[in-house]
Design goal:
Helices cover 45% and strands 14% of the residues. It is an alpha/beta fold. Strands 3-2-1-4-5 form a 5-stranded mixed β-sheet, sandwiched between helices.
Length: 262
Amino acid sequence: MVNFIAKFAPNISDVTAPLRELVKKNVAFHWLETHEKAFRDLQHLLTDPATLRYYDVAKPVTLQVDASQNGLGAALIQNQGPVAYAWKAMNDTQRRYAQIEKELLAVVFACTRFHQYVYGKTITVESDHKPLEAILKKPLSQAPSRLQKMLMQLQAYDINLVYKKGSEMYIADALSRAFPPEIIPEQFEEDIASERFIHLMSSESYVTDRKLQAIKDEIHTNETMQVLVKQIQDGWPDHKILVPSEVQPYYPYRQELTTEGP
């Protein structure tokens, strides 16, 4: 991470000189006050406004994300320079996730943490977990239930996920392993998820033309959706039992469902 940031940070070689001495061959490792000061100065340098870039609404946005065994890391990047960092510790439940679930959780974490920067924009998300590419391209119904929940949260964003080698994921990898021990309370995370889901399903939810067309195409080719569209257009009966079995799950929401176009 330090090597990646070096081209944006002034005097970083001078700051890290005492630390580099420690890793030289045949040099005994003794952590002294000079090394502690160099380490603290380096921490400050990495998060200094002079190192971080100003966010530009007119420029493309890239999110670099990663998940370690116990933490999540994310960086918002423009013009190959860092704009903001984010990291968090996983809770006990999340630590038991499969790796692909942790990696997708990192994408959700990055999008929600940087919501004000990425909402309404087409963004590139870099991940070192290649299976995520296939998961994001599959229909939502084919994903496991836990992944479905996270994928639903991501529907509010226009994401282009690309695979990048782990050896090139300097920032996100470091952040996912150097997180603070504090964990966001579970209820607070649930509230965030509920808020995102409600916002997604509201009539004011932003959907790009490309994504809207993809939704329409899926509806036209999905048999269950065709039955649902016909039921909405024909009207709902007074009793759920009179509704075709495949669309009965939508019956409680019948007053909120509408169609448009022919």
